[in-house]
Amino acid sequence: MAFHEKDLEIGLLLDFYGELLSDSRREAAELYYNEDLSLAEIAENAGITRQGVRDSITKAKAQLTEYEKKLGLAAKFREIEKTMTDIIPRLEALRDSSDTEKRRELDDIINKVKTVTI
Hints:
This protein is mainly α and about 120 residues long. It contains six helices and no strands.
C-alpha cells in the first residue's frame, strides 16, 4: 500500500486519539496505517477475516475523524507547528544583531520555542 495524504492524516489522528479506540480497532488501524501491513497480513496475525479487519479499520477511521471534528487537537497541533516553523528563522535572523544582550535573550527564546516543536 502506498501512503497517501489521507493515510498520514489518520496516522496523526491515531497519535492523538488512538488510546480512545478499543484495543482491537487501535491495533488494526496502527498496523494498517503506521506499519503498512495489508488487510490479509493483519487478518492472519489476528486470526480473523480480511473483512473483519476492514470493518475494524473503517470503524476506527470514523471514530478518529469524529474525535478530531469535536476536539480539533490535530488541527491545533499543525497550527502550532506551522507558527513555530515561521517564528524560529525570524528569531534567528534577529539574533544576528550586534547587541550581545539581545542575542543572549533571543538565544534563550529560540531554545524555548524549539522545545515546543517536534
